[in-house]
Design a protein that fits this description.
By secondary structure, this protein is α/β, with parallel strands linked by helices. The protein has 13 helices and twelve strands. α4 (115-124) crosses α12, α9 crosses α10 and α9 packs across α13 (350-358). The two termini are 37 Å apart.
Length: 372
């Protein structure tokens, strides 16, 4: 299978602010402002339109844990090929809560996202806004610290630790961990025994290097960027999960879009499955394409040492690892971000399992959280 080529596409860059309280959010979105920093022009598409649909709005992040869309949505990407003449309008997010807001508002039809914002958004919408339809990656998140200020996990009290956005997957992981260690933090303000600072992924390494942060719980490649700037990994999140596996990124779809355009969703899922297989078979080429995608969407490629370390910490997977989602839902409650978490019916893996069957592969399980 030939390597996909990247396109230089005009994109919409969306990043939500983290200023508003998560606990006061409504079903229509997280209430943060989205700054449109890009062009709405859709990349050129070739072939027959899937279901006659002209274009689809797809969201993802410009980071290593989103290797599937970064590789699969290239000019010759396998997702792009499956969509034929249906054009993709990519929208790039810093973290999950702003992606959920865009999905709720109808400005994206589907998006790759982390588990905690999916749970939070689904709960706030009383289960009426999204379905998880496929996996993408496991792993790729760490607590990286300044070793001069934090030497052990017992040293976190009184320190300044960053996460990418209030309510994002790493934010929930940090708050849950701190709560389990008896350290109290207000989930809205981030103030408490540890000061949790919500900051854009691209800004965290600079703030860390300037001494404004003592550490950060972040995804790849931000974690590896911090290591390159003198940080040390105090805790790789894999250490907290059985077999080191936990959902980091999965694909969610608007329930309305899934109902109206199941053939388009199937094309994306089929392309994602083929992309993940290609990544596993061609890790060096895939790593190069991921870096080209990061450069395309952020304006700057990763240094080789950062890229190698970051890419080595993730595992692409079609399985959304549903059994770990229930634990992450409990973490959202334990951290104080949600009073209760709704997960019943959050999965619809029927299309994924249809695609896997066609590839001669076994079905994946929804851990009892599938739509009836």
């Amino acid at each position: 299978m030939s390597a996909p080529r990247r396109r230089r596409a005009a994109i919409r860059l969306l990043a939500g602010t983290a200023a508003l309280p998560l606990l006061a959010l409504t079903a229509c979105g997280y209430g943060s402002d989205n700054d449109d920093k890009g062009d709405d022009a859709a990349p050129a598409a070739q072939g027959e339109k899937i279901g006659g649909l002209d274009e689809i709005n797809i969201g993802f992040f410009g980071n290593v844990t989103h290797a599937t869309p970064l590789v699969g949505l290239g000019d010759d990407g396998l997702i792009t090929k499956e969509l034929g003449g249906t054009a993709v309008k990519p929208q790039i997010f810093n973290a999950g809560p702003s992606a959920i807001e865009a999905l709720n508002a109808g400005s994206v039809d589907m998006t790759w996202i982390g588990p905690s914002p999916a749970i939070n958004g689904y709960t706030q919408a009383d289960g009426r806004n999204l379905r998880i339809v496929a996996g993408a990656t496991s792993g790729g998140a760490s607590l990286v610290v300044n070793p001069d200020k934090i030497k052990t996990l017992d040293d976190l009290e009184g320190k300044r630790i960053a996460t990418p956005q209030i309510g994002n997957t790493q934010d929930v992981a940090l708050l849950n961990y701190l709560a389990g260690e008896g350290l109290e933090v207000d989930p809205e303000s981030g103030k408490g025994d540890v000061l949790v600072i919500r900051q854009d992924n691209k800004e965290i390494p600079t703030t860390f290097q300037q001494g404004g942060l003592d550490g950060a719980w972040v995804p790849e490649p931000t974690a590896s960027n911090l290591v390159a700037k003198g940080g040390e990994v105090l805790l790789n999140e894999k250490e907290l999960w059985d077999d080191g596996k936990f959902v980091t990124t999965h694909l969610i779809v608007s329930q309305t879009f899934l109902k109206d355009h199941p053939d388009v969703v199937e094309a994306v899922v089929r392309g994602s499955v083929k992309t993940n297989a290609w990544i596993k078979d061609n890790p060096d080429e895939a790593k190069t394409l991921v870096n080209e995608g990061i450069e395309e969407y952020s304006g700057k490629p990763l240094p080789d040492d950062v890229l190698d370390r970051a890419f080595g910490d993730i595992e692409v997977t079609d399985d959304p690892l549903a059994s770990t989602l229930g634990d992450q839902a409990d973490h959202s409650v334990k951290s104080g971000l949600l009073d209760e978490a709704k997960t019943d019916g959050i999965y619809d893996l029927s299309i994924l399992n249809k695609v896997l069957k066609s590839e001669g592969r076994p079905a994946v399980d929804d851990a009892g959280l599938g739509v009836e």
